[in-house]
Amino acid sequence: MTDIESPKKVENSVTKTHKVKVHPKLIELIGMDGAKFDIAADRSASTICSVTSSKLTKLAKKESSTKLIHYHKKYFTRVYPHGLKIDSSNYNPVKPWAMGAQVVALNFQTKDTGMLLNYAWF
What we know:
Blueprint (H helix, E strand, L loop, with lengths): L1 E8 L5 E8 L1 H7 L2 E3 L11 E6 H10 L2 H10 L1 E5 L13 H5 L4 E2 L8 H9 L1
Parallel strand pairs: 3-4, 4-5, 5-6
Antiparallel strand pairs: 1-2
């Protein structure tokens, strides 16, 4: 069994970590390692990379779309809005989906075109 630290918030707002025993075979099934997004890197299938929607769009212009689709056949990618974005609007999720990204983060507070597309698709 492997110990995994799980943060828990207690009443006085202090975060404490508790060790949870998880079988290594289960970790292989559900655990994902985070890595820096690099289309040329060779990594394990249990790796997930996070990238902003604008960076992925720039990469799609630089690289071929086919290359990104083949990358996403092997590796997981999470796409999220830029961190300095101050409004609650969503970007167009169809572009990352078309490039093969598996997780496209959207703001559920706003009922805009991005969320309507998400509701329609899923």
